[in-house]
Write a structure and sequence with these properties.
414 residues; mainly alpha; two-stranded antiparallel ribbon; 19 helices; 69% helix; disordered N terminus
Length: 414
């Protein structure tokens, strides 16, 4: 179900929507807590699902409790304990569950005390392939659906479902412990952890589903976890760069949707940007520059610093943006980076030069590729082709605000 379900909209339905919204916001924290307590992903996911069923039965009538996260955690933990008690083959986990239930202190948390960040590091175990680590963590911690994770990886939903299932089975078969890594293990897993936080933030920045177009709870949580990570690894410039990038993008959140439509960067009211977040993001970028060990996230932060430094869209230093993307292409020669560079090239050298670059990229299954092509074709006056490209872009997104924007642009073609 989603907030855009066309079914009945009475009080019961509205209550169910509220439950789903709370559950989605609390899902990652709930799973992290349950995995720490019971050491089993399947137990955690099933208990969380059972807690959702109970909430859907009760909350529409009684209202959302004052502490919905605590209510869900308690209900899910009780369901997990009941299940473990019923399964005689799980004596060890039964005892562990009862110890937790009785308030006995948990095992030492290691250097990472935050439950959610600990589970990210735990899921980013070297026993799993990098893509499997990211996919599993996005599903568990980001609260992303399998379809949303699949979209992040540009693969079919069935493929991603199989990948996540295999990752969980491999964790069980390899007896990967659900505990925080030692301090010496953190740098080895850092790249995957940063990728997870980046993708969680991206899903919040522009949601792929048909619910809220911008999921502020995800962007805020990604920022919170990155701040915790920076406290653990203050000398890692890529952590600082990722945090800077997030803050500079988050600063623009309130200006990104207006009257139900997505507002692109060049149309945004810059007076609506958060000056405190912009200032903090710029300060972090300057820290990275002083260290002078450029990396992917630091360069992305620098790009956003250039955008947020310009008082108007016309004042943007596009030559600097292209130069930063040139550096990024050398570090990460992926077609997605090349696509983002082409957007900047369009402002510097014109849409025809950019379109030639875009059309060479193997990104026909990537929704933003169609969005960029549609805009470039529109600017070139190739209205028939632009209309087709907007159609392809619309077919690739369920985000209501983005669909409204793309529909408007297509409707303006002559």
């Amino acid at each position: 179900m989603s907030a855009h379900d066309p079914g009945p909209q009475g009080p019961g339905r509205q209550g169910a929507v509220a439950v789903e919204r709370v559950f989605r916001a609390e899902y990652g924290r709930l799973i992290a807590s349950l995995v720490r307590r019971f050491g089993d992903i399947d137990v955690a996911e099933e208990a969380a699902s059972e807690a959702l069923v109970v909430a859907l039965e009760k909350w529409p009538e009684t209202g959302v409790p004052p502490n919905p996260g605590g209510w869900l955690t308690t209900t899910a933990a009780n369901r997990a304990i009941d299940r473990i008690r019923r399964e005689s083959k799980r004596d060890a986990k039964h005892q562990a569950a009862l110890m937790t239930y009785d308030g006995t202190a948990h095992e030492p948390t290691g250097p990472v005390e935050d439950d959610r960040l600990r589970l990210i590091f735990t899921c980013c175990h070297p026993a799993l392939a990098p893509e499997a680590r990211i996919a599993l963590t996005l599903r568990l911690l980001g609260g992303l659906t399998v379809a949303e994770v699949a979209q992040a990886f540009l693969v079919p939903e069935t493929t991603m479902a199989q990948r996540i299932t295999r990752a969980k089975k491999k964790i069980a078969a390899a007896n990967v412990p659900y505990r925080a890594p030692e301090a010496a293990d953190l740098p080895e897993r850092l790249g995957t952890v940063l990728a997870v936080l980046f993708l969680v933030f991206n899903e919040g920045y522009l949601a792929s589903g048909d619910g809220d177009p911008v999921r502020a709870e995800l962007t805020r949580e990604a920022i919170r976890l990155t701040r915790v990570l920076r406290g653990l690894l203050p000398d890692e410039p890529e952590v600082t760069g990722l945090l800077a990038m997030m803050l500079l993008i988050e600063a623009r959140r309130e200006a990104r949707v207006r009257n139900g439509q997505l507002v692109p960067l060049h149309e945004q009211d810059r007076a609506g940007w958060d000056p405190a977040l912009v200032a903090k993001g710029h300060a972090l970028v300057r820290e990275c520059l002083a260290i002078n060990r450029p990396g992917r996230y630091q360069l992305l932060a620098a790009v956003n610093a250039v955008h947020t430094d310009a008082p108007t869209a016309a004042d943007t230093d596009w030559s600097q943006v292209v130069a930063l993307y040139d550096q990024l292409v050398r570090l990460d020669p992926s077609p997605i980076v090349a696509l983002n560079r082409a957007v900047a090239v369009a402002e510097l050298d014109g849409p025809s030069v950019a379109l030639a670059l875009v059309d060479r990229l193997p990104l026909q299954s990537y929704h933003p590729w169609h969005v960029v092509r549609a805009d470039l074709l529109r600017r070139l006056g190739r209205s028939t082709e632009a209309r087709d490209a907007y159609g392809a872009a619309l077919a690739g997104t369920q985000n209501s605000a983005e669909r409204a924007y793309l529909s408007r642009k297509r409707g303006e073609l002559v």
